[in-house]
Design brief:
Length: about 400
């Protein structure tokens, strides 16, 4: 084997194994809180795997709980923190197993295909099998928003090139680009599932059927209406009544009742039914009603619908306002979890860094009273500090 190269499957000892890649290299830069790990040959490694270099870099960040940054123009890929080469090579093996190797024959000659139902498939050119990746992994959200570009080969056919999708093609900035409705996978899934809707019996937490008699339903709805009226903040900048009969009150009550049995598609369809799927206030309402005290672990479940609805900075601010209400008014015991909550939304590319920073440095009485606002922002300081340190580190690199 050529010096500096290893088998893509490092568990294969066969020296005649033809699938090879450069040995992953690392370089530690900076010091203190600004220390970072640069991967100088990530582009070469990714090219051997036929994947965009941002994919394994982002995978490292997901697995290590670290922020990542990329500069494709100069092939610079960074994972914040000090990480030795051995650890990153082990993680690269995991990435290869999950997102490169065929699930059937374990051959690396695969392309990633994004289906209409928002699944990511490994299409194997060796055995012809198509196997799905584990959609529970956080990297899948990044891949769905940054699909590998299709490029023309010499014979005119299309293949997945190891390049990063531009913002106009679902890029990292989270903008709806390209203008092609054919790429709107969530909408397609909603339409395809609309004809297959079935009514499921309500099941209680103890496994027994919930009482669905008219009296019981009326009593539950009344309780929910009271809760909604007390918790939802409905500013007067929309054409709706400020009560449980408004579209926001309706979707809020529905979310509280159904959240254990619904997914992102169900939520978006309900918003469409009420005609509020594009409204920023819908985002605020859903943050307050879809989640429980286990919000940190629940965010990945509903991340796709927030990604779909997050079409402007105003929507992001409404989401942050919903978090203020959720934590500062309804779940004060979660104040210490604010950094984790923000991190989950940030890692899912739902909240952008500049919006979070602006929110964190400006006290507002729009969603909660001034004192509550200060409490929530005070609780968010560890996350805001983490963002600032990452930026300072990037500036140090630019000066070198």
């Amino acid at each position: 084997m050529a010096p500096g190269f290893v088998n893509i499957r490092r568990d294969v000892d066969d020296k005649f194994y033809r699938y090879r890649m450069p040995l992953l290299l690392t370089k530690i830069e900076g010091k203190g809180n600004g220390i970072k790990t640069v991967i100088p040959n990530m582009a070469d490694v990714a090219r051997a795997l036929s994947r965009p270099p941002t994919y394994p870099t982002k995978f490292f960040g997901c697995e290590l709980g670290a922020q990542t940054s990329f500069d494709e123009k100069v092939d610079r890929y960074i994972v914040n923190g000090a990480h030795d080469a051995t650890r990153l090579r082990e993680l690269l093996d995991t990435f290869i197993d999950k997102f490169v190797l065929c699930g059937s024959c374990k051959n690396p000659e695969t392309e990633l295909i994004l289906t209409k139902t928002e699944e990511i498939i490994r299409d194997c050119k060796a055995c012809g099998q198509r196997t799905s990746v584990d959609m529970r992994h956080k990297l899948t959200t990044f891949i769905l928003r940054n699909p590998p570009k299709k490029v023309k080969t010499k014979k005119g056919s299309e293949s997945n090139a190891p390049e990063v999708a531009s913002p106009g093609n679902g890029g990292a900035e989270g903008e709806e680009g390209g203008g092609a409705e054919s790429d709107d996978e969530l909408t397609k899934r909603i339409k395809s599932e609309a004809a297959e809707l079935s009514v499921k019996p309500a099941i209680g937490e103890d496994g027994w059927s919930v009482d669905t008699s008219p009296e019981a339903v009326k009593a539950r709805v009344k309780t929910l209406e009271t809760s909604m009226q007390a918790s939802l903040v409905l500013n007067g900048d929309d054409d709706s009544d400020e009560d449980s009969n408004s579209p926001y009150g309706q979707i809020g009550i529905w979310a509280v009742e159904k959240r254990a049995d619904i997914n992102s598609v169900d939520v978006f369809k309900k918003a469409q039914e009420l005609g509020i799927e594009k409204k920023h206030r819908t985002v605020q309402t859903l943050v307050q009603t879809l989640f429980t005290e286990d919000i940190v672990t629940e965010i990945p479940k509903f991340a796709p619908v927030f990604t779909k609805m997050m079409t402007s900075e105003k929507h992001q601010k409404a989401l942050l306002g919903g978090i203020e209400r959720f934590v500062g008014v309804e779940h004060l015991e979660l104040l210490s979890s604010v950094p984790k909550i923000l991190m989950e939304f940030y890692q899912a590319d739902i909240l952008q860094e500049d919006v979070i920073k602006q929110w964190g440095t400006h006290v507002s009485k729009k969603y909660v009273d001034k004192e509550t606002c200060k409490k929530v922002r005070k609780a968010s300081e560890p996350f805001l500090k983490w963002l600032d340190e990452a930026d300072d580190d990037d500036e140090d690199d630019d000066e070198e």
